[in-house]
Design goal:
By secondary structure, the protein is mainly alpha-helical. The chain has 8 helices and no strands. It has one domain. Helix 2 runs antiparallel to helix 3, helix 3 packs across helix 8 and helix 7 runs antiparallel to helix 8. The radius of gyration is 18 Å and the shape is globular.
């Protein structure tokens, strides 16, 4: 059934394998765009939002390229930089918890573990919020809704954790591989959100 659906959506004259390979290549290119847009340190939510929107357009066979990605990034960064700043603050708290656990402070190991799981949950919620972003959407509302979906859709959340693990392993083996794989994580977030919407 699924191949027939993909075939129906593929552009005329393009085979299903060619369409899938083109989408894969687009994911890798989008990963490079996301990595460049993340250089602003607090701009990573906007970068993923622009990347996810670009991939949604690509899946729907709508036009769009680097200029549209840049326009989406500029729109998303208006409120997205605050979400990015909050993410770094959460990471700093977890780092302090982990350091406390390593120093042998009483209660440190459980606090470090809870902090680490909370950070993973926040990252997943951030990816889900970015995948649902549209111009004009408020990040606070997006993150609140994404937090609920992260808890209520554990299977989708687990898929995103797996995607993040692939990025981490890619960076560990060959650091430059993590850059294009970011696009695959954005695509996974889009797929998870679409799956949740249709269930």
């Amino acid at each position: 059934m699924a191949p027939a659906r993909v075939r129906a959506g593929a552009p005329r004259g393009e085979s299903v394998p060619a369409e899938r390979f083109a989408l894969f290549a687009e994911c890798l290119l989008t990963g490079v765009w996301i990595a460049v847009a993340c250089l602003g340190v607090v701009t990573y939510p906007a970068a993923f939002a622009a990347g996810a929107r670009h991939l949604r357009r690509r899946i729907a066979h709508e036009g769009g390229g680097r200029r549209e990605f840049a326009a989406d990034f500029r729109a998303a960064v208006r409120g997205g930089w605050l979400a990015g700043l909050a993410g770094w603050a959460a990471a700093a708290v977890v780092w302090a918890d982990v350091q406390a656990a390593r120093a042998g402070i009483p209660g440190g190991p459980p606090a470090g573990a809870v902090g680490l799981f909370a950070l993973i949950g926040l990252v997943v919620a951030g990816l889900r919020a970015a995948a649902a972003w549209t111009p004009g959407a408020r990040w606070r509302a997006l993150l609140a809704e994404a937090g609920r979906r992260t808890v209520l859709d554990p299977a989708g959340s687990f898929l995103l954790v797996g995607g993040l693990a692939v990025v981490a392993l890619s960076a560990w083996f060959v650091a430059p591989l993590a850059v294009p794989v970011l696009g695959a994580v954005a695509a996974a977030a889009v797929a998870v959100e679409e799956r949740h919407r249709h269930h």
